[in-house]
Amino acid sequence: MRVVRGQGMDQRTGLDAGSERPVPGTPCWVSLMVDDLAATQEFYARLFGWEFQPGPRQLGPYTRASLDGRVVAGLGRRPEGRTLPVAWTPYLATDDVDETAGTVRHCGGTVAVGPLDAEDAGRLAVAADPSGAVFGIWQGREHRGAAVEGVADSVLWHELETPETTGVLPFYQAVFGYDVDPAPVGDSATLLLEKRPVASVEGVGPALGEGGAPRWRTHFAVDDPDETVNRVIELGGRVQRPPREGTYGRTATVADPAGAVFTVARPRPQAGAAGTAA
């Protein structure tokens, strides 16, 4: 996992606090679609202290989670007949979702949903890269994205897990204009926008598991990963990887009762630094 320490979206994610518009390519939102929305809301309310308000309903019932009154993520009910994965899905910002969706197709990806309007909030599409990893595309209007990231109980980082990076990096560079900073060792790289790290790509090889599909993984910041893991178990979730120390902090990988996998992390204070946590 790569982490960037900073307070506020302008430092952590490349959101311009003055214009309130994320730089195209910035992970600006994260959303989870499940079958039992009420149960999932209760899980995250008790785990992270989130509160919920209604959001756009183009794809069915949808709510926005907030932390201390600031929106941090979205939860929705999976539409019947659609094969959307039960997984936290990052949305990458764009100024023109229709054009970006066309570029996705041109570069070998697929578009499964949209582009379509989400009321006055914005316009979206759900796509997959050539390896099959699912991500969203968001053109914000009234809703530009998360109001806070990088603090406890909010999104910290997004990481693409894939068998090897060379097959997907050209796709993301072509679609979103990322610069790439390869790691000095191992098959991993940081995606940069205007010289700022915004996400990472990890080539995990056989560690993806037999039958495992490439996927984007969301990391949430927490004060105490060990305590958070205990709460996950108490609330009916499960542990995929117990807490452990890495070079850049303490992390654990868990799944909620609906099966959505995510990582909780307490990075070490290394202001302005990015790196890989084992």
Automatic annotation (TrEMBL):
VOC domain boundaries: 26-140, 154-267
Pfam families (UniProt xref): Glyoxalase_6
Gene3D superfamilies: 2,3-Dihydroxybiphenyl 1,2-Dioxygenase, domain 1
Ranges for region Disordered: 1-21
Highest taxon listed in the record's lineage: Bacteria
Organism: Streptomyces rutgersensis
Coiled coil: none
PROSITE patterns registered for this protein in UniProt: VOC (PS51819)
InterPro entries in UniProt: Anthracycline_SecMetBiosynth, Glyas_Bleomycin-R_OHBP_Dase, Glyoxalase_6, VOC_core
Biological classification of the source: Bacteria, Bacillati, Actinomycetota, Actinomycetes, Kitasatosporales
Protein name: VOC family protein
